[in-house]
Amino acid sequence: MRQYLVGILVFLSITFQSRDLYAYHQPPIIHTIIAKAEKAKVDPALAVAIVEIESKFNPRAERYEPKIHTSSVGLFQLLITTAKNLGFRGSKKDLKKIDNNIDYGLAYLNGCTTKYKTMHDIGCCYNAGDAFAPETCETENVQDYIAALENKYSKWQVILRYDWVRVMLANI
Question: How far apart, in whole angstroms, are the C-alpha atoms of residue 41 and residue 107?
Fold first, then answer.
């Protein structure tokens, strides 16, 4: 009983701690990410952690990347060029659609987890995108990203081990 109550408190505090406009939409988005991640054979906790870091679960998130003069978009903060390298045939507007963004974000993440086994290398691969090289991992920004990923991943591993959390996410 105690584990059940602790789990509820952890779930509620994490799910509803965000004060932004998209806090309301987190449970359905998280459920969709988990379901699609399981189907794509990607660790759901890792996928949700990436989305939390990249977009804070905001499907409309867009971030200008000054070094490459383009924007990353959607939940997984994908570049259109990265998605096109994975077979995407639509526009940037199409890539912002939740299902498209999740599908191609998971495809990219699957590539990282297939090539690399440590959280450090997987995080670096995802963060650096198509420009991934070992030396890109040593910048302070990437090290901060990897530390955040390890933290969020641990948190989501704990939350998602409770089956009832998955049921709640599916029914909200």
Answer: 10
How far apart, in whole angstroms, are the C-alpha atoms of residue 165 and residue 27? Answer: 10
Q: Are 78 and 95 in contact (CB under 8 A)?
A: yes
- Parent domain of 113: 2-171
Q: What is the DSSP letter of 139?
A: S
Dist CA 144 CA 23 (whole Å): 24
In what order do the strands lie in the sheet containing 62-65? 62-65, 70-73, 78-79
First to last CA, the chain: 23
Inter-CA distances, 52 with 22, 81, 87, 155, Å = 12, 22, 25, 11
Q: Are 87 and 58 in contact (CB under 8 A)?
A: no
CB 65 within 8 A of CB 72: yes
CATH number for 84: 1.10.530.10
Q: Where are the alpha helices (DSSP H) in the chain?
A: 2-15, 26-39, 44-55, 80-85, 92-95, 98-115, 119-128, 140-160, 163-171
Count: domains in the chain: 1
pTM higher than 0.85: no
Q: How do residues 55-112 score in pLDDT, each as one tens digit?
A: 999 999 999 988 888 899 999 999 999 999 999 999 999 999 999 999 999 999 999 9
